[in-house]
What we know:
11 helices; Cobalt-precorrin-4 Transmethylase, domain 1; five-stranded mixed beta sheet; 3 domains; elongated; alpha/beta; Methyltransferase, Cobalt-precorrin-4 Transmethylase, Domain 2; single chain; 280 residues; 10 strands; 42% helix
Amino acid sequence: MKGKLFIVSTPIGNLDDISLRALRILKEVDLIACEDTRTTKKLLSHYQVKKPLTSYHEHNEVKKAQKLLKQLESGKNIALVSDAGTPGISDPGYRIVKLASENGIDVISVPGSTASIAALSISGLPTSSFAFFGFPPKTKSKKGDFFKEFQEVTHTLVFYESPRRVLDTLKHLLEILGDREISVSRELTKIFEETTRGKTSKVIDRLQERTELKGEFTIVVEGNKNKGKYSIENLEKRLRFYREKGLSLKDTVERLTNNSKIPKNRIYREALRIWKKSKE
């Protein structure tokens, strides 16, 4: 008889967040495949779970998935865990799940913590429809193209970001999506858990006041509330924002034309009015 593959969610910070079922599964399986054996050992030690561990991470998952499949086919039950949260959600897990399911192995979810849902639930933004997109690209050009895809999306958006890049990402969001309502959470479920809510520009100002930013960030962004509508008020805000940043009239018109469905001649007329007014 073939074994089973259990996808086990683990705490994202507070160790008390693990479920009773997850603990039972971890005690019963033959092997635990984990992202970092050192991190998982701390969790298992806390709950006095003693089971063999094997590493399964982004650098070895292609080869390791094949090895784990052989053990599953031989009858061993395996639990897959990541360092924190739910395996496969911006963490390794996709390949072994796909491979196991394609070869007749039962893949069973043991749900629990995940930073994206935790941050969304306390964001104060609509939760009836949302989409999670993991980490944005690192380079400026790719990040810009990435966010442009969401300009017309009406549902709530959720992203992860590192402390080194969070301010840069928020500035891209402001420039490309406008000054929307957002919620930025860090250190979720930990001692220094913190969530900052408000307009993107205001959140940027607050974070810039910090001497150092720590912890993984989860960014929740309001969807496009004006899709299909023409809002002269929103256009004026964007034009004034670029004018204050020092962009030329030509560059501003080109940027807004590329980033919106507003006719170029209308953008140009409004921009010309604002630029003339600023010189008076």
